[in-house]
Amino acid sequence: MWFFARDPVRDFPFELSPEPPEGSSPGPWVLHRGRKKATGSPVSIFVYDVKPGSEEQTQVAKAAFKRLKTLRHPNILAYIDGLETEKCLHVVTEAVTPLGMYLKARVEAGGLKEQELSWGLHQILKALSFLVNDCNLIHNNVCMAAVFVDRAGEWKLGGLDYMYSAQGNGGGPPRKGIPELEQYDPPELAGSSGRAVREKWSADMWRLGCLIWEVFNGPLPRAAALRNPGKIPKSLVPHYCELVGANPKVRPNPARFLQNCRAPNGFMNNRFVETNLFLEEIQIKEPSEKQKFFQELSKSLDSFPEDFCRHKVLPQLLTAFEFGSAGAVVLTPLFKVGKFLSAEEYQQKIIPVVVKMFSSTDRAMRIRLLQQMEQFIQYLDEPTVNTQVFPHVVHGFLDTNPAIREQTVKSMLLLAPKLNETNLNVELMKHFARLQAKDDQGPIRCNTTVCLGKIGSYLSASTRHRVLTSAFSRATKDPFPPSRVAGVLGFAATHNLYSMSDCAHKILPVLCGLTVDPEKSVRDQAFKAIRSFLSKLESVSEDPTQLAEVEKDVHAASSPGVGGAAASWAGWAVTGMSSLTSKLIRAHPTATPAETNAPQRSPPEGHPAPAPTSVPATPTSSSHWETQEEDKDTAEDSSPADRWDEEDWGSLEQEAESVLAQPDDWSAKSQESQAGQVSHPDRKALESDWSSWEAEGSWNQGWQEPSSPVPLPEGTRLASEYNWGGNESNKGDPFAALSVRPSAQPRPDPDSWGEDNWEGLETESRQAKAELARKKREERRREMEAKRAEKKAAKGPMKLGARKLD
Predict the structure, then answer these.
(1) Residues 75 and 126 sit within 8 Å (Cβ to Cβ)
(2) Residue 115 neighbours by CB under 8 Å, 6+ apart
(3) Which residues is 91 bridged to in the sheet?
(4) Ordered DSSP codes for 42-96
C-alpha cells in the first residue's frame, strides 16, 4: 500500500528558504532561513543530514535536539518545532543570525556601540548562570559559533550539542573531534592535568573569556593571544583576567561575575542595560514606576539601537497602552520609536493605537495628541480622519480648559487638507465662528483668526466668499490688540481670494477704520494693507484687462497651494505652540476679555483713578498635564521677497508683547524703535507690491503682560464699553452697511451657518438686547400699575370727624 505513505518533510508546517545557508558552522548543524507555511512568519531552521558512518555525530545531534526542546529560558535559543526522520533532523527556532555575521554587519553599517555588547554579554552570562546553578549542566561549547542574535538584538545561547550533567550522570563530557571547537578548551583539560581540582563552572568561564576576547578583537588565532586584552574596555579588563587565569579554582561563578560587572562604574552598569532589565520585569512593576520609566525613556531612545527600539521597546509601549494604565506618558516615546518604522509598519502598528487614543476622555492624552499631531498626520488617510478622528477632536472646541481649545484650533491646520466638504466648510466654520465671537480668551480668538487665514485656501469658493471678509472684519473690532493685527494680516494672506468689488466696498472701509486704532502696531499694519490693496485696485484701473488674471482665484475651487506652503504652516501649528493661553490663565485665571485683553485706559481728566482690583488666581485641577512652554520661534525673514504664507504666523505671543509694551505716542516719530523691531529705511516709500509689504510684517515680536497703564487720547472709550452689536456702533461707521441683512431672510442659529453666520451672531445679540429691554419695560409698567392700585386701596372711606389734609 505504497500510496498511503506520506513524506514527513513535505507535510512539515515549515519550509526552507531557497537562499543559501547563513555562514558555515564548525558543528554538525547547518542554519537555514525559513518561514511558517500558514502565516509566512520568519523562522530559523537548523538542519542535520544523517550520513553513513557518522553514528557518533548523529547521537550528538539527537542529544542537542532533546536538550533544546526541554530547556526554556529567555536567553537560550527558543525552540518552536522539530522533525526527526531516518534521513535528517530539523529544529525550528525563532529567527536568528549567527553572532559572527551580526557583528560584521553592524561594523560595516557604522559601528557597534559598547552598550550593545555589554547587554549581549549580560544575556550570555545569565544563560550560563541558569545552566550551571539551576540545572547543574555544563554547556561545554561556549564560543562565537554557539551564540545567535534575534531581530531585536538580543543574544541567545545555542550550540547545546556537547552539554553534559555536572553531577557525573551519564559519563564525562562528550568528545568533540572538531579542532575549531577544541581550541576553546581550558588548559587544565589537556593531558594529565584534566584531573586538576576545579569548580564545575571553571571550563565554561574560560570559554566565556575567549568569547569576550573575540567579540572585541576578532577571531582568536591561538590561546596565547588571550594574555593581551587588546580592545577590551578598561572597565572589563580586571574581570576578564579572572576568567582566563591559569588557576581554575579562582574563576568566578557566572552569577558572581555578573554581579561584579554590575557594580558602580562597571562595564554592565549603564542606561541601556537598566532599560532592558526594567522591560523584562515591567509586568510586575508598580504603576508609579512605569510612569517614571516612560517619562525618562524618551531621552535615551536616541542613543539606543534602532532594532532594539522597533522590536523590543515598541511592543512594550503598545502593551502598556492597551492593557496597562500608562496613559499619555507613552505617547512621546511611541512617536519617537515610530520614526524607525516604514510607512507600512507605521500604518499597521501605530495608527490603530493613535485612532483609539483620540476617543479617550483623558485630557492629558488629548492635548499631547494634538501637540504631536505633526508626527503622524501624514499616515492618516482621509476616511479615517473624517470618520474616526475629527468627530473626537471637535470636542476640544467646547472644552472648558483654554489650553485644549487653543491646541484644537492649531491642530486644524494639519487636519484641514484631509477634511471632507461637510466637516471643513460647515462643521469647522461653525466652531470657528463661536470661538471668534464668544471665547473669553483673547489669544484663542486671535489664533482662530490666524488659523482661518492659513486654511482659507482649502475652503470652497462659496464658503470663502461668505466667511473670510466677515471673519477678518470681526477680528479688527476685537478688544485684544493682537487679534486686530491678525485680522489685518488675515486680509493680506488671502488677498487673492477677494474680488475687486469686495476690496473696494468691504475690505478697505474696514482697514481705514483701523488707521485711528489706539495701538500703533495695528495702525502700522493697517496702513501697509491699505497701500497694498490700493495698489492692486490702481493697477486694475490702469489696465482693466488684468481683472480676469487678478480674480482668477476668487471663484476657483479649493486649492492647497493658494494660501502658502503647508510645511511652514505645519511648523507653526505644532512646533510653534507656546501654550500662550495656559500662561495667561495662570496669570489671570478668571479675567474676562475686557479685563484681561483690552488695553488699559487712563481715567478722564478731573476724575480719580479707580483702585486696581486683584483677581484671585484659582488653581486648576489639570495643572499636572499642562504643556510646557516651548522655545519661541525667533527666526526672521531671510529676504524681503518672502511671501505672507511663509511668515511665522505662530509667533503671535511675541507680537502681543510688542503691542502691549509699545507706548501710544502718535507724535513720537523720531524716537528710537523698541527692542525686537527691525527698522526699514525705505518704509516711507510707496509699497506697490505684496512682497515688500509682507516682508515688513512684525509677527516675530513677542507678547508680554502690560506693566503700566498706557495713556490714550482724551475721549477714547474702553473696548468693553463699545457696543459691538447695538445700533450705536453703526453711527459714524462708514462700513456699517456690511452687516445689514434684508429683513425677509431668516435669522440663523448662532452655532450654524445661514447666509452669513459670522454676522448672525451679532444679529442674535441685537435681538436678545431688544427682547431684554422690552421685558424690562413690561415689568416696570406692571410695577407702576400695582403701586397705583395700592395707593387707592390704602385711602379708603374717610372717617367721621377726620380732617382732610391738603
Answers:
(1) yes
(2) 270, 271, 272, 273, 303
(3) 46, 82
(4) EEEEEEEE--TT-HHHHHHHHHHHHHHHH---TTBPPEEEEEE-SSEEEEEEE-E
What 8-state DSSP symbol labels residue 25? -
In terms of Cβ atoms closer than 10 Å to its own Cβ (0-12, 13-18, 19+), residue 619 is exposed
Q: In sequence order, which residues have a C-beta less than 8 Å from that of residue 658 and are 6 or more positions away? A: 521, 674, 676, 677, 698, 701, 702, 703
Q: Which residues contact 417 (CB under 8 A, 6 or more apart)?
A: 458, 560, 566
Alpha-carbon distance values, 31 to 25, 99, 142 (Å)? 8, 13, 18
The one-character DSSP state at 667 is: T
Q: CA-CA distance, 523 to 528, in Å (whole number)? A: 9
Please give the Cα distance from 25 to 43 (Å, whole number).
18
Q: Which domains does the chain have, with CATH numbers?
A: 14-96 (3.30.200.20), 98-270 (1.10.510.10), 271-339 (no CATH)
Contact residues for 576 (Cβ-Cβ < 8 A; gap 6+): 630, 632, 633, 648, 650, 651
Other CB atoms closer than 10 Å to residue 679's CB: what's the count? 7
**Are the beta carbons of 149 and 278 closer than 8 angstroms?**
no
What SS3 class is residue 155? Answer: strand
Sign of CA pseudo-dihedral 316, 319, 325, 329: positive
Residue pair 653/632 in contact by the 8 Å Cβ criterion: yes
Q: Identify the DSSP state of 695.
A: T
Give the whole-angstrom CA distance, residue 509 versus residue 467. 17
Please give the pLDDT value at position 592. 36
Query: What pLDDT score was predicted for residue 287?
Result: 84
Burial of 480 (0-12, 13-18, 19+ CB in 10 A): buried
Looking at residue 131, its pLDDT comes to: 93
Residue 320: per-residue pLDDT = 82
Cell (9 digits) for 258: 555578573
pLDDT of residue 360: 84
Q: Is the pTM of the predicted complex or chain greater than 0.70?
A: no
For cell 511675541, the residue is 654
Pairwise CA distance, residues 379 & 307, whole Å = 21
Residue 332's pLDDT is what? Answer: 86
In this prediction, residue 18 carries a pLDDT of: 78
Nearest CA-CA partner of 447 in 421, 412, 400 = 412
| Cell numbers placing 634 | 525667533
Per-residue pLDDT, 480: 92
User: What CA–CA distances, in Å, run from 752 to 85, 86, 324, 518?
Assistant: 76, 80, 41, 33
What is the four-CA torsion angle of 274, 275, 277, 282, rounded to 10 degrees? 140
Grid coordinates representing 106?
553592524
pLDDT at res. 157: 94
Q: How far apart are CA 496 and CA 695, in angstroms?
A: 17
Q: Give me the helices (H) in 597-689, please.
A: 652-661
Q: Which residues pair with 47 in a beta bridge?
A: 30, 90
Q: Could you list the mean pLDDT of each consecutive 10-residue stretch along the chain, which spans 806 residues?
A: 58 83 75 90 91 85 90 93 89 93 86 88 94 91 92 92 79 73 81 60 91 91 88 92 88 93 91 92 86 88 89 88 75 88 88 88 87 89 91 91 92 92 92 91 92 91 90 92 93 90 92 92 93 92 89 73 37 34 38 37 38 34 34 36 38 37 36 36 36 35 36 44 41 39 42 43 63 88 88 64 48
- Predicted pLDDT of residue 755: 39
Cβ within 8 Å of residue 595, ≥6 positions away: 588, 615, 720
